[in-house]
Amino acid sequence: MQNTETSEAILDAAQELAQIRGYNAFSYRDLAERVGIRTASIHYHFPTKGDLGRSLIARYAAYVADVCDDLERRSPDAPTRLRGYAALLEQVLAPPGSTAAGSGRVCLGGMLASEYPTLPPEVQQEVRRFVDDNVRWLARVLAAGRDAGTLAFAGAADAAATALFAALEGAMFVARTAGDAGRYRAATDWLLSALAPPSAR
Amino acid sequence: MQNTETSEAILDAAQELAQIRGYNAFSYRDLAERVGIRTASIHYHFPTKGDLGRSLIARYAAYVADVCDDLERRSPDAPTRLRGYAALLEQVLAPPGSTAAGSGRVCLGGMLASEYPTLPPEVQQEVRRFVDDNVRWLARVLAAGRDAGTLAFAGAADAAATALFAALEGAMFVARTAGDAGRYRAATDWLLSALAPPSAR
DNA sequence: GTCTATAGGCAGATAGAC
DNA sequence: GTCTATCTGCCTATAGAC
Predict the structure, then answer these.
(1) Average pLDDT for residues A49-54, to the nearest whole number?
(2) What is the DSSP letter of B118?
């Protein structure tokens, strides 16, 4: 990825389509129409679709990791960090330039995870890393929160983090199927309140 | 769907492929190879791929609904019903005829939900119904369990049911990405224990 | 960097013989 | 019910001019 303006525009178009339809359901032709160039020109920037996919998820993972870093630096406690994380994924459903609720987008990481077996190996690798990184980050926040007394839950933080991540990703699919973005909020609010200590409930 | 032997064999092959790759990533050719007939013959049973998809998810939904009915009749309490439901989805990952752990399958309903925007309308309708039915069933079990004192959680049963369903479906994708079916178990066990009343924890 | 032109393959679907 | 043959259109990717 060379970070030229064109390649960024290609990635922007690809990300929107991948978040809505998935990696296997958009084509170089779709991209070409949106960016205003020819399909052959896209191959100049990304020789194969696997190259494109790898750049796409890598850029997305870097963005999410940045926000997580910010959350850790600026949020005072674990519950706030978790709320910030849920909001990050929610924001991804309706990015700045789009009409809030019904964009039809879901988290790119979750979408690619659902397509995992059909993905080129280089894309699979990045998806695996994305999921691992996010679950590990959540496990860290969860464990720290329990130690500090701002969260309360039984069992392993690892298992809780996996369940939480799975629920957030899955809730996007459920919300989209129902055509109701509010379902995502309702489910995540419930989850986060279930992790609050009895004193805060 | 006429329930002939051939059409059932087609649906069996289609279900396996759809659970692994998704609806958009298997073809009539894939089916023809597995069933041992020609693609044109499949069109005799299912004129369009949308017809096939509708029959596929309808059959699956009916099976899941049957198991849920059994669970309600035979299980003594809500925690047992929820464990049975989680086990049902887990069993779906590794059906009788396949090698347990790494079948690469996920719940058909979750897979189709992830492909929702690209699905033919008649398939979307059945997917919506599947998700609704399952969340409603879970909400009913959850509410009854709380009333009976065998479950403990705060907030709306609807929101809890959505979160639980989302978590179970999402955990399959996470487990598959990690190549570790045990992750599904770990996440669901944690979730169910989090719903247990303090006395049972 | 972007273009035209094209290759080679696969998709879903149909016509009509048997 | 299953077959052969075929249609039309889309896909990723490449060659080579500008």
Answers:
(1) 98
(2) G
Q: Which of B160, B187, B191 sits opposite A190 (nearest CB)?
A: B160
| B125 interaction partners in chain A (CB closer than 8 Å) | none
Q: Is the pTM of this model over 0.90?
A: yes
Nucleotides in D strand less than 7 A from protein CB: 1-5, 10-16
Q: What is the DSSP string of A98-150?
A: S-STT-----HHHHHHHTGGGS-HHHHHHHHHHHHHHHHHHHHHHHHHHHHTS
- Segment B147-162, tens digit of pLDDT: 999 999 999 999 999 9
Largest CA distance in chain A: 61
- Report how far residue A157's alpha carbon sits from residue A160's, in angstroms, rounded to the nearest whole number: 5
Q: Is the pLDDT of residue B95 over 70?
A: no
The answer to whether residues B151 and B145 touch, using CB atoms and an 8 Å cutoff, is yes
Cα Rg of chain A, angstroms: 18
CB A15 within 8 Å of CB A108: yes
Tokens 């929101």 identify what position?
B159
Contact A154 B127 (CB under 8 A): no
Are B11 and B63 within 8 A, CB to CB?
Answer: no
**3-class SS string, B3-51:** CCHHHHHHHHHHHHHHHHCCHHHCCHHHHHHHHCCCHHHHHHHCCCHHH
Q: Is the dihedral of CA A60, A66, A72, A76 positive or negative?
A: negative
Question: For residue B182, which residues of chain A lie inside 8 Å, CB to CB?
Answer: none
Plot region of B27 (φ>0 → left; ψ -120 to 50 → alpha; else → beta): beta
* Strand C contact at CB of residue B179, distance < 7 A: no
- Protein residue nearest nucleotide D2, by CA to C1': B41
* CA distance linking residue A89 with residue A105, whole number of Å: 10
Inter-CA distances, A46 with A25, A28, A89, B38, Å: 17, 10, 27, 37
